[in-house]
Design brief:
InterPro entries: NAD(P)-bd_dom (IPR016040), NAD(P)-bd_dom_sf (IPR036291). The protein has 170 residues and is α/β, with parallel strands linked by helices. Helix content is 46%, strand content 15%. The protein has five helices and six strands; from the N terminus they run βαβαββαβαβα. The mean pLDDT is 90.
Length: 170
């Protein structure tokens, strides 16, 4: 495990050397980091990490993004996620897999009351419609590993919530 300073990521290029696969789940919230901080973490840090990984020999990059990601969106969150998807694809990996999960179901250390309420509701909905609006983080993690073990056809593969559920069962 290498600890890096994301503000000086270029100084840590050695940490990105010699890896065939890169997994990226980096992200923050606008509430926690402000609008500028959110863009810096969710787009700029991720794009720089992808560039360093590619320069270090990474052949398959797996990015956790978000359902609805769209570089043309008027919503900051979805626009930034769409922009970073485009930037990562442009790096030129042999394989690039982008996962676009819906609401992530997980336990957090910090208190996010509105997210907790939404997760309680979506957990109940997930009982009846398991792949519609949410996905447990464990399922996303299993899907990320599975897509590396069987990368599929083509250079870029985008997995939406239903496909994440399916792949995450393996």
């Amino acid at each position: 495990q290498a600890v890096v300073d994301f503000e000086r990521l270029g100084e840590h290029a050695a940490a990105f050397q010699g890896h065939d696969v890169g997994f990226c789940c980096l992200g923050t919230t606008r509430a926690k980091a402000g609008a500028d901080g959110f863009v810096r973490v969710d787009r700029d840090y991720v794009a720089k990490a992808a560039e360093l990984a590619r320069a270090g020999g990474c052949k398959h990059f797996v990015l956790q993004s978000s359902r609805g990601a769209n570089a043309q969106s008027c919503f900051l969150y979805l626009r930034v996620k769409g922009e970073v998807e485009n930037l990562v694809q442009a790096v030129g990996f042999d394989h690039c897999t982008i996962l676009q999960p819906a609401v992530l179901l997980c336990k957090r250390r910090e208190s996010r009351p509105m997210e907790w309420i939404a997760q309680q509701f979506l957990s109940a909905v997930a009982w009846a419609f398991p792949t519609a609006y949410s996905v447990p983080v464990e399922t996303v993690a299993r899907a990320m590993v599975a897509c590396v073990l069987e990368p599929g056809e083509g250079k870029v593969r985008v997995l939406e919530n239903g496909a994440i559920h399916e792949l995450g069962k393996a």
